[in-house]
Amino acid sequence: MFIGLDLGTSGLKGIVIDETQKLLAETTAPLNVNRPQDGWSEQCPQDWLDAANTVMQSLAKQLDLSHVLAIGLSGQMHGATLLDREDQVLRPCILWNDTRSAQEANEFDSNPIFRRLTGNIVFPGFTAPKLAWIRKYEPRIFDRLAKVLLPKDYLRLWLSGEHVSDMSDAAGTSWLDMQKRDWSDDLLAENGLDRSHMPRLVEGSEVSGVLRDVLANRWGLRKSVIIAGGGGDNAASAIGVGVVNPGEAFVSLGTSGVLFAASDAYQPDAASAVHTFCHSIPDTWHQMGVILAAADAMSWFGNVVGAQPKDLTTALGALQAPSNTLFLPYLGGERTPHNDAKIRASFLNLDHRSDKVTMARAVVEGVTFAVCDSFDALTETGNKIEQLLAVGGGAKSNYWVQAIATTLGLPVSIPVSGDFGGAFGAARLGMISLGGSLTDIATAPKIERVIDPILPLQDSFLSALKSYRKAYKAIKAIS
């Protein structure tokens, strides 16, 4: 058996699969985000450990875990977990969606070495600008700093006693030489850091350590259960849906939105705000466009009008041509293609006839157009997307998926019901780390249905997309 643990922002999920990849057990422990100031987002690392213990104890009640061979890890990226020489946490972890270090990010991004070596813009959510903010505003903490770990890697430290990260997660720090797949001494020096502050690097499909005996005894596991390198949440999810070869891609309509495409070549285009990262398997990279509010935008709207997101999308019926009402889903800024931490969401062209259904449709369309922005940015780098799979909560809405298919002019596949997220991908990486074949293990899921574009509506969606893009420029001018 194999365990996958996925440390998300809102919860930690654990699953157990057998050697045929059949799901045997699953459970989730919730997590809370603290927002002490506007634009700040933090979590207490001890909460992750408590959640992991809760998850493992729950799995142990469901199954005899003595046959588990490996544990794989997946997790939210970019978070700055700061440790002293005794591995004690120095302050709450600054999370991926924290924008306090926008100025520091801009300063780093103006230095050509960052884009040249990382292939990416330095976004406010990345780890390096967080450390620059700490150095500037919390110097006493910076002076005590001995190690910087990403969230899932702090969990790994607790599980195995090892300071280790994988290539895909390390890629989101702005310290990794993306082509060499190694820490850059020059980039670390820009932060006042060196390799001693960094964890050891492994590929996500390699062994990173062994489960500590005290935890194995607590949860009923055998000794010497290995911990796989694992991956950042999106790279692990890609393993979960079998997106490992060029031309394969998936769109995730979760809290945030991601358009992810695998590549066997390093082909960055930082100016497009496309993320070019290492994949969690050797000699492979990936590119992704990131939307900060996808299904989260519908959740927000549901909270405003007192309705469940599922009910709002179900009420839309069959796909219709967009109305004049526009929604820009920039509730907390946007990454691809704008790299704009200050822009905020807007409804435009409301009138006396605008109602809940009209506005819900506009939210779906706004997120759809944001996905199209990412699609165009990825394809302009030379990425040819031939297959597109839709996953995440928003993908349960036929209306939403068909809007994306119609605007892109590309069929979108929906997998059969099941968990193909980070936890599943992490468990698969655990299997591969023990010598399993990537080709045999990281297969695509069975497809339940394919949603084709409605071509007679495509011109209407493309026209609305043009208006959406003009609206961003107009709103930016007054933001």
Number of contiguous helices = 17
Structural category? alpha+beta
> How many beta-strand segments?
24
Number of domains: 2
Largest sheet data:
7 strands, mixed
Care to describe what's here?
The chain has 479 residues and is an alpha+beta fold. It has 2 domains: 2-229, ATPase, nucleotide binding domain (Nucleotidyltransferase, domain 5); 242-479, ATPase, nucleotide binding domain (Nucleotidyltransferase, domain 5, 2-Layer Sandwich), CATH 3.30.420.40. 37% of the residues lie in helices and 21% in strands. The strands form 8 sheets. Strands 1, 2, 3, 5, 13, 14 and 15 form a 7-stranded mixed β-sheet that branches. The chain has a 5-stranded mixed β-sheet with strand order 18-19-17-16-22. The longest helix has 25 residues, at 356-380. The termini are far apart. The mean pLDDT is 94.
Write the layout of secondary structure elements.
Layout: E1 2-7, E2 11-17, E3 23-30, E4 42-43, H1 45-62, E5 70-75, E6 81-83, E7 93-94, H2 102-109, H3 112-118, H4 127-137, H5 139-144, E8 147-149, H6 151-160, E9 164-166, H7 167-170, E10 176-177, E11 182-183, H8 185-190, E12 200-202, E13 207-210, H9 213-219, E14 226-228, E15 231-232, H10 233-241, E16 248-253, E17 257-263, E18 275-278, E19 285-291, H11 295-305, H12 309-314, E20 326-328, E21 346-348, H13 356-380, E22 387-391, H14 398-408, E23 412-415, H15 422-433, H16 438-441, E24 447-451, H17 458-478
Parallel strand pairs: 1-5, 5-14, 5-15, 9-12, 16-22
Antiparallel strand pairs: 1-2, 2-3, 4-7, 6-8, 10-11, 13-14, 16-17, 17-19, 18-19, 20-21, 23-24
Helix pairs in contact: 1-6, 2-4, 10-15, 11-13, 13-14, 14-17
